[in-house]
Specification:
The protein has about 140 residues and is α+β, with helices and mostly antiparallel strands. It has 5 helices and 4 strands, in the order H-E-E-H-H-H-E-E-H. It has a 4-stranded antiparallel β-sheet. Strand 1 and strand 2 form a beta hairpin.
């Protein structure tokens, strides 16, 4: 048995490209957004708060990304837990979980290597901007 293991993570340069793509989409939509990229461990890798975006969106964007580290979009998380009463009751007590749209996992093959979270617009705008950031991966 090995004493260590290797894990993949998103690079800072790719995280910055994703932020730029999400911000470009937000500008196209005419909405201010906060964009957060977290690494595979849930730590902030890249960030942008556009002018006029509510302060609460700083934390919400990071929480959406953190939730996506479970390997699914944040807007799918509630459907994943809704049929388990213990999870439905317990999840609200777990810090950093957001069960609404705007958080998407970043994958390399089957591995989750980070996540993007976007907050500041409608849920649909947040998802669109997060997807634009994810699309920057190519």
């Amino acid at each position: 048995m090995a004493d260590t293991f290797t894990k993949e993570s998103i690079t800072s340069s790719m995280a910055q490209k994703m932020v730029a793509a999400a911000v470009a989409k937000a500008e196209e939509l005419g909405v201010g957004q906060v964009v957060a990229i977290l690494d595979e461990s849930g730590l902030l890798k890249a960030f942008c708060r556009m002018e006029g975006t509510p302060l609460v969106s700083i934390e919400v964007s990071q929480n959406k990304a953190y939730t996506a580290l479970f390997g699914m979009p944040s807007h799918e998380f509630f459907d994943f837990i809704k049929d388990d009463p213990a999870l439905v009751a317990g999840v609200p007590h777990i810090p950093r979980i957001a069960t609404f749209g705007g958080g998407l996992p970043i994958r390399s093959g089957d591995a989750v290597v980070g996540a993007i979270g976007v907050s500041g617009g409608t849920v649909e705008q947040d998802i669109a901007c997060a997807q634009a950031g994810l699309d920057a991966l190519g």
